[in-house]
Amino acid sequence: SFSEYMLFKIYTLCQTKRSWGHCVQHRPCLLLTCRISMDQSSSKPSLVEVVTDIRIHKNLHSSNTVLVCLFGRIGRLVLRACLQKGIKVTAINDPFIDLQYMVYMFKYDSTHGRYDGDVHAEDGKLVVGNNVISVYQCMKPAEIPWGEAGAQYVVESTGVFLSIEKASAHLQGGAKRVVVSAPSPDAPMFVMGVNEDKYDPSSMTIVSNASCTTNCLAPLAKVIHDNFGIEEALMTTVHAYTATQKTVDGPSAKAWRDGRGAHQNIIPASTGAAKAVGKVIPELNGKLTGMAFRVPVADVSVVDLTCRLSRPASYAEIKEAVKKAAHGPMKGILGYTEDAVVSSDFVGDAHSSIFDAGAGISLNDNFVKLISWYDNEFGYSNRVADLLLYMHSKE
Description:
GlycerAld/Erythrose_P_DH; NADP binding; Rossmann fold; cytoplasm; single chain; GlycerAld_3-P_DH_cat
């Protein structure tokens, strides 16, 4: 266990080198780092805060979370994010790929690069660094022996078991709670930095981390609404293609345009991300809707939020409000840039949303268009891990 002497030494390091790199409002969600480039406006922590956060971090190493994900795009990146944040991962379930292929898929990634660490198979388990992860190949969630693996949390990222009823099957195998990495038709939905304080561990065992686009839109919408009010708004997400699309033209019964070649076309598509903001910010319910364009890039998307404000504000005032939030209560969730950036500049960015101050415009003081980028894979995966951390801190 940590001695009081070591806690004092770490506290001293935080005070002298200003290395408390986390969001002040959500301390349990992010971990202590030795980052010198601390924003000068952020306050230093007290010794009590340091002790409390280290104890939470320490306890997370003895707690377990599990990925059930078919080891797809989000599943593999959630594993990366969990390992980076010190969350112990004990098991993975994927009925469609064998262990050696898991090693290969986790080690090599065409978008995010080769994993920086040892990855191999040993005694029927996936070994990543010092993490030994059990591998299961069950088709039905109820058959996965989560209890045998010591699992407390399941990340449900198959995209299939989205409802409370379907996701609850994981509890039959011994899991304690389930985080669905997609919008759910009936599970409570949380967006870190926006409404996680509504999480109630006494009544919520199945929760949703919403979608990547909702995670980008909601923090920005919250800042704008809290400061200026939103009367009504339309959102467009220019979204990278995903695995559900076709490499060349093929059948798509649900929406014919979705069957067209992803690399060849800009494809209009539907999205529930804007309406979902009304679930996490009830005051905006019925005031937002939106659509998507799927475009030929592998990763990083951008939200265009066009809104009519309740209170007049210049674009300079809007920028200042977003910047203040990005450097304050939403640090680590909402980013801010005035650089002349493009989409590839955000590959691997862990923020949910990065406001592009130079890309937005205003018609007048009540009608504005705001632009915010997001790595729809890595940023979202980090929020899944952060939600796990937050839920654990409330146990």
